[in-house]
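Hi all, a correction to my earlier message: I attached the wrong file for Aminotransferase class I/II-fold pyridoxal phosphate-dependent enzyme. Here's the right sequence:
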Amino acid sequence: MTSRITGTSAVEIADSVRGLLERARLAPGEPLPPVRALADELGVNRNTVVAAYRQLAAAGLIVTRGRAGTRVADRSPVAQEGFSAPSSLHDVGTGNPDPRLIPDPSIALAAAAGRPVLYGEPVIDEGLESWAGDWMRADVGDRPLRLTVTSGAVDAVERLLAQALARDDAVALEDPCFLASIQTVRLGGYRAVPVPVDAEGMTVDGLRAALAQGVRAVVCTPRAQNPTGASVSAERAAQLRAVLAEYPYVLVVEDDHFSLLSQRPYHSLVGPDHRRWALVRSVSKFLGPDMCLALVASDPHTAERLALRLSPGTTWVSHLLQRIVGHLVTDDGARSRIRAAARHYTDRNASFVRRLARHGITATLGDGLNIWVRLPVDAAAVSPHLRRRGWLVRTGDEFVLADGAAASHVRLTVHGLSDADADRLAADLSDACDEALGAARAPTRVG
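and the right structure:
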């Protein structure tokens, strides 16, 4: 049986594969012939096929897995954060902050006005840089650092990986994982290596195994890990630093997305002698997603390469936006509102965990906007029963990298519910689990 691929040069072979993809004659995930087999079939040198596959991999059209073979890249959509499509269901899977608790940006609009900023001027607003430098250095310590401003945390992580990696390079990601990180790694053409997460963050054995597989970057969440809410403990951070000490040139990206809202201390995975690192802190959780800005503290080498990644496209983040953010994070009233929001998220989540306990459902109170709930049955079986009761949830399978991980979990965003709605959701979740268990135990009729 022939492969349908034609050509006698690398360019012709690559164009043939592109044509098959465009005509849908090759499907996502479908295997391509081994190099030797295709070379024999086409009567060409193996290096010609290798060069063709290399072109296709660089374009993100195929993925090479060594002995596991070469396959068409999977372009299936990845779940996204935020509200679902409009429906009559009550969406408790959004992962959004409460808009009522976000400081009013209008108080900073007048302060943002000023002379126009022109090409060639510093890319970071002086006032924001001064505040951010103090904020970051309080946690980074004496390590040399430089600051960069990006259009949000996802933009920062994407550009940090792009300046350090090539397609098919391996990246260690938490499992379960933040949806945007999964999307970033997939679109970048990198290979995700899952590292299990427990109540104290990335596991030591999981990170050690990922590093042994040759990962060139590690993306982790030191606090309020999404979706689990886990925060890295001081003991775990020391253990992870000891493992990473043997790999000083592996890029470690810490996405401290909850920062000013976090109720847990920040413990870094980056040791004093680690050479490639970046701490990313966005403002979207406490100032709102529309304030699309993140601050990056990194080692000077990474900062220089990050600046090169920024220069071809978005040379700078709007200085008007930077001034608004700078005013809000230094305003006493806005900071008081941020502290009140932090208490609100913790209190409402803790209250809902107690409600679940009364129904025999255990959930560990972590940090962050969400609650990670383990159910007595697969979440995919529970979700339809919740839909019939008017609820839309996020099931754990949307966040996983390894097969079967977190299948019995749901992520709930409940901080905006009234007491009555919270009572109803807890009861409905319990009833939905009972119905799903009953259906799973029911005998299957034959004939």
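Sorry for the mix-up. The chain has a mean pLDDT of 90.
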